[in-house]
Amino acid sequence: MKGDFHIHTYYSDGVFSPEKIVDLAIDAGLEVIALTDHDNVLSYGVAQNHIESNGLSLKLIQGIEVNTLYKEYEVHILGYFPNVEKSDFKNLLKIQQQARIKQTKEILALLNKKEGIKIKFEDVKNMVAEGGSIGRPHIAKAITNAGGTSNVMEAYKKYIHRESPVYVERKTVSPFDAVEVIYDSGGIPVIAHPYDIDIAEDLIKQLMNCGLVGIEAYHRKHSPAIVEYFSSMAENLGLIVTGGSDFHVPNIMNGQIILGKNFIPEWIYDKLIEAKRHRDLAG
After folding, report:
1. Among 72, 71, 12, 2, which residue's Cα sits nearest to residue 36?
2. Given pLDDT bands bounded at 50, 70 and 90, which one contains residue 138?
3. What pLDDT is attached to residue 282?
4. Is 243 exposed, middle or buried (CB count within 10 Å of its CB: 0-12, 13-18, 19+)?
5. Which of 174, 100, 176 has the alpha carbon at shortest distance from 138?
6. For the chain, what are the domain ranges?
7. What is the DSSP string of 183-245?
8. How far apart are CA 248 and CA 250, in angstroms?
9. pLDDT tier, 261 (very low <50, low <70, confident <90, very high otherwise)
């Protein structure tokens, strides 16, 4: 089935509502999608209700992308089909949300103290849907809105990085914790866009001990050579391959909606379903 298994909505750092994403996916000819907002799963119910209420033909996979840190590397873990009612899964989301709020408030305090840029926490919180995940893109946008920089990219360059005197690292969970919780909830843990982690192979092997099931080899930032590299790695390690556009916003340069992007093989859905069946049979 033609699908896209990495999509963000305005419940994290995407710009569109879950309903809008569903409509765009159908317009793009997709048959199945996974909504993978950062550190929350709220978009799934909204999107599913939109599909059912309007009699739309689109399969929806429950998904998430958990932001983690490991040795100063930012490692993102995708999770498919988790039982979101499991207590450990709920606790993981609670920890992640609290860390996001704490980081944001501390950065805003430092911006006020050291740079004279005054931003209310509510102004950042209001950039996401109710209960959604606030993060660095929202802080950067708030800095720009407050007149601290002329644009969001400048805000990132000046303030949203480790060397900035106003930046505070988010105290997030480890990738090992994320993989284990997703796996124990009956889900399929996958390492996201590993192209930017130069210790990816060693880390992937370690994460397999916690239940890692797959590698996101297909990604809009992965060249054909990188796709082949991680696909071969997955085959050698006995892991499945997944893929997605990692859609957040329309392509500003040409006005296109890059959703699905026609590069994700249709067999990826079958492999995901097969992996889920194996998980269910294993208990």
Report:
1. 12
2. very high
3. 73
4. buried
5. 100
6. 3-92+171-282, 101-159
7. HHTT-EEEE--GGG-TTHHHHHHHHHTTT--EEEEEETT--HHHHHHHHHHHHHHT-EEEEE-
8. 7
9. low
Q: Measuring CA to CA, which residue among 171, 172, 146 is closest to residue 159?
A: 146
DSSP strand pairing (214-219 vs 188-191): parallel
Q: Let me know how long the chain is.
A: 283
* pLDDT tens sequence across 228-254: 999 999 999 999 999 999 998 876 554
| Tokens describing residue 235 | 């085959």
CATH 3.40.50.150 fits 3-92+171-282, yes or no: no
* Residue matched to tokens 């550190």: 39
- The amino acid sitting at 16 is F
Residue among 207, 198, 194, 212 at smallest CA distance from 279: 212
Question: What's the CA gap between 104 and 12, in Å, rounded?
Answer: 14
Is residue 195 within 8 A of residue 90, CB to CB? The reply is no
Is the distance from CB of 187 to CB of 163 less than 8 angstroms?
no
pTM of the model: 0.94
Tell me which H or E stretch contains 34: strand 32-35
